[in-house]
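Attaching the record inline, Q. Sequence:
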Amino acid sequence: MNAVLILILSIAALVCGYLFYGRWLEKTWGIESDRPTPSHTLEDGVDYCPAKAPVLLGHHFSSIAGAGPINGPIQAACFGWVPVLLWVLVGGIFFGAVHDFGALFASIRHNGQSLGEVVGDTMGNGAKKLFTIFGYLVLLLVVAAFTSIVASTFGSTNASGAAIEGQNLIAHQQTAMISMLFIALAIVFGIMVYRRGVNVGIATVIGIIGIIAIVAIGYVWHPLNFSYSVWMILLGVYILIASVTPVWILLQPRDYLSSFLLYFMIIVSIVGVIGCGFMGQADMNMPAFTGFVQKSNGLLTGGTLFPALFVTIACGAISGFHSLVSSGTSSKQIDNEKDALPIGYGAMLIECIVAVLSLCAVAYVFQEASGADATKTLSSPTVVFATGISKMVGTFVGMDSPIVSWMYTMLVLAVSVFCLTSLDTATRLARYMFQELWLKEGETVGDAKKAGGAKAIFTNMYVATIITVIIGVGLGMTGYSKIWPLFGAANQLLAGVGLLGVAAWLGHVGKNNKMMFIPMIFMLVVTITSLCQTILSKISALQAMAEGTDPFWTSVQMILAILLVVLSLVLAVMGFKTMIQQARSKKTQAA
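Structure, as predicted:
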């Protein structure tokens, strides 16, 4: 099969999904363009602030993208391109986009409050507490997975300690240097716009010129040469600082600037695939289907098709993390309720396009990526993506052209920047959730501070952040390949619970929620099955104590998996009881 044909048909399918299914949901749920949104009714200039649709789309997409739509499809490629493609398209249109759109819409209609608050008002305060605990555990895994991914694209060694050599090492150093300069650029941009009053348009031009300049500097001067472990510690310090500083200093300006890199990455990847096709070299160099059971080679995940495929692809089709972003920041900035469709539903479909491009990239270098020594030449899925796309570009500009090397560095940089953006957001959200765990209903952090004692300590923003970073980075030290299956399952399980919460809320306000049932039940079954497999594998690892097994972190991962299963089952029972009561109430009213 030709990659160009797959890409074109996939984009066509996703556009049709948006135009027909997305708009049907918009009409069914009763989106009202003249209804005031929380960004206007509760505007405070800090959290609640109206943003134009293109600007908010850039912020939302930068926050949800991360490395998920790249890592997931590439690691799941061991099952063949057909099952990966089918789940990305079907899952994206009918599962992921519905989940994101529903969470955003519910939060908008709930004064921009988090999905936990929506769950609390619909299912009770106990359910809210459980959802908050659940969300916090998932965010710990987000921090662990994404920190590990970034460290693996910066480091001179991989997670297992093997040295990165040759051009790959140079690219890692270049990416690390440019990423650090990008952080400095974002801070300067934030000061210009928010403290010096520079016009956003002028600042944007300066910012884009700055991006070009730091890429040029980092490409020729890249002195940073640290191991994976050292980068994990440095990144931990960075996200600790970044998640407690005011959002205007780093979070907002970097989200905005990084969106330009994101669009650049997508455009270059599409041009690369199509250009490679014109050169007659865009065939999918991987099997359409390889079987229901596959072994892992350290780069491609492996496992049984069910549930591994649906868990591994993660953000490429559906992601629970998106519901936390939708109801955490985006719902507070949406200018008009009609913008919920392109931002909530549309952003997920754009992410599906990235997933399809990732599939095309891994197909182009599949023989190298699926080999026994894959991790020596392709140290991570990010490197697979950058290698595949840059080599595709090389088919029509020449493999010896410096453009290929430059393109590789830019693609790795783009993914790393998105991971850092997601890391900031995840750490900040985790800090909020950790603080909320210690508060009573209606109580604020300020109230807890006045009360003193242990509650005042645990609701302190610095204490909450330090605890989150230590646990998250500690888990990530084991390597993304070990944490990704647990992260994928937990993230997808959060999506199932999120669908459950939105379904209960839709029923509560008298709107059609039937479109949520199949995705909700499917995701709960898939992810609970995967987590049970993880629990059994961790028990076996502890019993065997094979070489390389860390008993402490293996035990932590096992305990996290058990907690996630228990919490999800309890929340599922609460949710189903709520919806059964809603159905009975409707019958009583109809009678």
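Residues 44 and 516 are 34 Å apart (CA to CA). Strands lie at 293-294, 303-304.

More tomorrow.
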